[in-house]
């Protein structure tokens, strides 16, 4: 998550399918590269940019603007001093999750989040308005194959480098015509993906996490149900710009009492009268 070019180097070293890429530390060769390659093309700030570091440019002019903004105007600060320029992939985007320790990976499942605020996938991006698990057409066998192709070789490469990874891997991938390709690795469960994934966990979460931390994941008892799940975010009016605080949330107990439903809170509180409100 901290460096796009580090991810790409690991992919190349481990022969993991990913978009063709090149890294630039100076603006002139970056501009020259996009003029030569043409659009569509993807411009990425190398460092962390709070979700604003990727521009999927539909024209060369848009790509040039993105490069100038990142490298000349430094709109993303230090994160944009280096850029990664990538081939533009097309296909469905899905996310794959696994508990990992050394070379061991245990599949958690797959999910697809929906980032835009509006009905029908419209409006500005959010942290995620909901997630479906598993995504349509990404069944267990396909997930296992993607784990072998896109995650296990990365774990082996990290071991080879003397920096074994322990934690959760959240692999973002694109299902292209040439098979699944890696977009990025995150080292956490997503939000709202975690809610859709973990509700299917039948064994205890804490011993699973402990086994990741102490390297005994091989022997851990981790079981998930095959049921499908969906998480839906209810946000205060104004989200993601300036969400209004104080709105009263009613009937949450009735929702939580429905079979198969769990309610998770984030940014809620009780007011002086004991009512649940958005905060
Ligand atoms: P990232 O921050 O790496 O997850 O990228 C943000 C989003 O940009 C991804 O979720 C994709 O929708 C899109 N994206 C990233 N890389 C590519 C690529 N090589 N081709 C097409 N879309 C991409
Ligand atoms: N929902 C996307 C993320 O947690 O990164």
Automatic annotation (TrEMBL):
Coiled-coil ranges (or none): none
InterPro entries in alphabetical order: ATP-grasp (IPR011761), ATP_grasp_subdomain_1 (IPR013815), PRibGlycinamid_synth_ATP-grasp (IPR020561), PRibGlycinamide_synth (IPR000115), PRibGlycinamide_synth_C-dom (IPR020560), PRibGlycinamide_synth_C_sf (IPR037123), PRibGlycinamide_synth_CS (IPR020559), Rudment_hybrid_motif (IPR011054)
A matching Pfam family: GARS_A
Pathway(s): Purine metabolism; IMP biosynthesis via de novo pathway; N(1)-(5-phospho-D-ribosyl)glycinamide from 5-phospho-alpha-D-ribose 1-diphosphate: step 2/2
ATP-grasp domain mapped to chain residues: 8-214
Cofactor(s) required for function per UniProt: Mg(2+); Mn(2+)
Keyword Ligase among UniProt keywords: yes
Keywords annotated in UniProt: ATP-binding, Ligase, Nucleotide-binding, Purine biosynthesis
A biological process term (GO) from this entry: 'de novo' IMP biosynthetic process
E.C. number(s) listed in UniProt: 6.3.4.13
GO MF entry, a single one: ATP binding
Enzyme class, first EC level, given as a word: ligase
PANTHER family: PHOSPHORIBOSYLAMINE--GLYCINE LIGASE (PTHR43472), PHOSPHORIBOSYLAMINE--GLYCINE LIGASE, CHLOROPLASTIC (PTHR43472:SF1)
Similarity field: Belongs to the GARS family.
Protein's recorded name: phosphoribosylamine--glycine ligase
Organism: Nguyenibacter vanlangensis
Gene name linked to the record: purD
């Amino acid at each position: 998550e901290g460096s796009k070019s580090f991810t790409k180097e690991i992919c190349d070293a481990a022969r993991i399918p990913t978009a063709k890429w090149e890294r630039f530390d100076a603006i002139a060769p970056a501009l020259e590269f996009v003029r030569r390659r043409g659009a569509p093309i993807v411009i990425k700030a190398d460092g962390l940019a709070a979700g604003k570091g990727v521009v999927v440019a539909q024209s060369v002019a848009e790509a040039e603007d993105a490069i100038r903004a990142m490298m000349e105007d430094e709109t993303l600060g230090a994160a944009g001093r280096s850029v990664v320029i990538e081939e533009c992939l097309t296909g469905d985007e899905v996310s794959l999750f696994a508990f990992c320790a050394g070379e061991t990976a245990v599949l958690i499942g797959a999910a697809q989040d929906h980032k835009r605020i509006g009905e029908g996938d419209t409006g500005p991006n959010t942290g995620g308005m909901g997630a479906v698990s598993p995504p349509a057409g990404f069944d267990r066998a396909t997930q296992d194959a993607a784990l072998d192709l896109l995650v296990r070789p990365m774990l082996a490469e990290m071991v080879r480098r003397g920096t074994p990874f322990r934690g959760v891997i959240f692999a973002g991938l694109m299902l292209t015509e040439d098979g699944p390709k890696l977009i990025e690795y995150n080292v956490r469960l997503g939000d709202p993906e975690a809610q859709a994934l973990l509700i299917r966990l039948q064994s205890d979460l804490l011993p699973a996490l402990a086994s990741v931390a102490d390297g005994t994941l091989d022997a851990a008892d981790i079981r998930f149900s095959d049921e499908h799940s969906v998480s839906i975010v209810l946000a205060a009016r104004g989200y993601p710009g300036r969400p209004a605080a104080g709105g009263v949330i009613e009937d949450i107990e009735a929702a939580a009492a429905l079979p198969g439903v769990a309610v998770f809170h984030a940014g809620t509180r009780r007011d002086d009268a004991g009512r649940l409100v958005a905060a």
